Amino acid sequence: MRLIGSLLRRLSPLLRSQAFRLQSQMDIHERSLWHNASFARVTGGFLPPGARDAHSIEEAEPWDLVRRDMLLLLMRDIEVRRVYGSLAEVGVYRGDTARLIHHYLPHRPLHLFDTFKGFHKRDTDSEAEVTGNAVASGQFLDTSVALVRDRIDPQNGNVVFHPGVFPESCEASIRRERFAFVHLDADLYRPTLAGLEFFYPLVVPSGYIVVHDYNAWHGARKATDEFLGDKPETAVPMPDKSGSAVIVKSN
Ligand SMILES: C[S@@+](CC[C@H](N)C(=O)[O-])C[C@H]1O[C@@H](n2cnc3c(N)ncnc32)[C@H](O)[C@@H]1O
């Protein structure tokens, strides 16, 4: 007991500091202090309709529970409302979000776009021009299609890789597909704008586009605001760590 007391006393300045905040679980999570099992049972909580086991979901993305829970609830919503269409992510890196998306909705095709070699010089050059921000090179290099496939551990043939620089990496056949959920996580202005231009017409009414880093990266924010300037939708800001924005496609 004495040892634990002394450890807690030593840790307390850190625990009280502004930089260190523990995120708690949402009340629909069974580990929440305020968990209401009957509410979660009636509404379904996080689980996809009809599912019983949340194990693989609970362990996903523990460093940003708000982001994880936002993505789960949006994906749950398209299931509950029967918003039909495929899923896509632009900016996959080592596949953490892609794994979450695929394991939550394994029955929907998931298209994954990344260079798998980090940022393209054309995009970082344009970032400096458009936002005035120099982006450090050498980021997101430690990945590959094989590594991501292994980490996702696909449950079926629904995970489709499109390696290369986006949007040139989009085959013509993808334009014939319709999407219910698109996650844009390429950080920079140019690929974010290209992602919005490419997917917006393909997203079905009341489907979702989530732009990650809307409140963290200048380029992601600027691309989103510019793109939506003449559209009926607005970017709804979310309080996850890097501030995603959610766009609900109107009819
Ligand atoms: C922040 S990481 C993505 C993180 C990922 N969603 C996760 O779950 O960890 C950004 C990724 O965007 C990719 N990217 C940026 N611009 C791109 C482009 N024009 N084409 C393809 N991939 C791009 C980078 O290679 C990098 O892997």
General description of the model:
With 251 residues, the chain is an alpha/beta fold. The chain is built from 9 helices and 7 strands; from the N terminus they run H-H-H-H-E-H-E-H-H-E-E-H-E-H-E-E. A 7-stranded mixed beta sheet has the order 3-2-1-4-5-7-6, with helices on both faces. The model has no long low-confidence stretch (mean pLDDT 91). S-adenosylmethionine is lined by residues 91-94, 96-97, 113-115, 118-120, 123, 140, 165-166, 185-188, 191.
List the helices and strands and how they pair.
Layout: H1 2-16, H2 37-43, H3 55-58, H4 65-80, E1 86-90, H5 96-104, E2 110-114, H6 121-131, H7 145-152, E3 159-163, E4 179-184, H8 189-199, E5 203-211, H9 218-228, E6 236-237, E7 245-248
Parallel strand pairs: 1-2, 1-4, 2-3, 4-5
Antiparallel strand pairs: 5-7, 6-7
Helix pairs in contact: 4-5, 8-9
Bound molecules: S-adenosylmethionine.
S-adenosylmethionine is lined by residues 91-94, 96-97, 113-115, 118-120, 123, 140, 165-166, 185-188, 191.
